[in-house]
Design brief:
about 280 residues; eight-stranded parallel beta sheet; 13 helices; about 45% helix
Length: about 280
């Protein structure tokens, strides 16, 4: 019996997805608990989560799942691997495919070539995991086919020798945020905080949000709800937006040069609160 998506999450546009849950395709048993979870977006992971000897079987497993009622994003292997073309050829025939996440994205043409092998309009999240990718982030964000950027923290740290201290990763995160803005994309997706749950994960979400990132990858399904709570507008922000918009509707006079920017921020918070169902939460 196929597992179906959480109704709330399935209705949320992927441009607003906060929690992105990676479900390893090495075992189909990982799919069922991921789909009904609170994750805004679910990704069947055929990349690093699958050992080389199991790549072909994982691909068949994913296509079968997406052809028998399941819907999900899929993380495909990088373009420089021998699996990339096979992954895309198989996924192009999967009716439940929501989009792909391209591993090890380092150049804009990698996204464009990936999009060209899928049905027109299939979104591609560029997973940037290296120093080269970070330096090319602006071009990647502006490439035809790029839907959103994501930060592969683990591989980036291995590539550069950086620690997991927020200061050590601040440049890379800022680069993705600025590149996304230049490319007129939704905010980028931060990497997972491996092993963190509860308050520790909420603290990690504060770092993500403070950098301007609006999504976060996670590994266990139970992390999704915490991320959803940690990344949308806070209760105080929602109250502030409500008060400002109410005063504006009642005819409040523009007091200074910062009023219109504050009004625009309040309207954005209002829109997000509506999308996430937070006004009356």
């Amino acid at each position: 019996m196929p597992a179906f998506r959480n109704v709330r999450a399935a209705a949320l546009p992927a441009k607003l997805s906060r929690s992105w849950l990676l479900a390893p395709a090495a075992d189909e048993a990982n799919f069922a608990p991921a789909l009904p979870s609170e994750a805004d977006s679910v990704i069947f992971d055929m990349g690093d989560a699958v050992p080389v000897p199991g790549k072909a079987e994982a691909r068949e497993r994913v296509v079968e799942a997406l052809s028998t009622g399941m819907t999900a994003w899929v993380r495909v292997n990088g373009m420089e691997t021998e699996y990339w073309a096979q992954d895309l050829a198989a996924l192009a025939k999967a009716p439940g495919l929501r989009g792909v996440m391209l591993a090890m994205t380092e150049r804009p043409e990698q996204v464009t070539h990936t999009a060209m092998r899928l049905h027109a309009g299939t979104p591609v999240v560029a997973l940037i995991e290296s120093a080269v990718g970070i330096e090319n982030a602006t071009a990647i964000a502006s490439a035809p086919g790029t839907f959103r950027l994501a930060f592969g923290v683990g591989d980036f740290r291995r590539d550069t020798g950086a620690s997991d201290d927020p200061m050590a990763l601040a440049y890379a995160r800022s680069k993705l945020v600025v590149a996304s803005r230049v490319g007129q994309l939704p905010g980028p997706i931060d990497g997972p905080t491996v092993g963190a749950l509860g308050e520790e994960l909420l603290e990690a979400c504060k770092v993500t949000a403070s950098m301007g990132m609006t999504g976060k990858l996670c590994l266990p399904p139970e992390a999704a709800d915490t991320i959803n709570k940690g990344l949308p507008p806070s209760e105080s922000e929602i109250r502030w937006a409500h008060e400002l918009l109410s005063a504006h509707a009642a005819g409040a006079v523009v007091g200074d040069g910062s009023y219109l920017p504050r009004l625009a921020r309040a309207e954005k918070i209002s829109s997000l609160a509506d999308s996430y169902g937070l006004w009356n939460a």
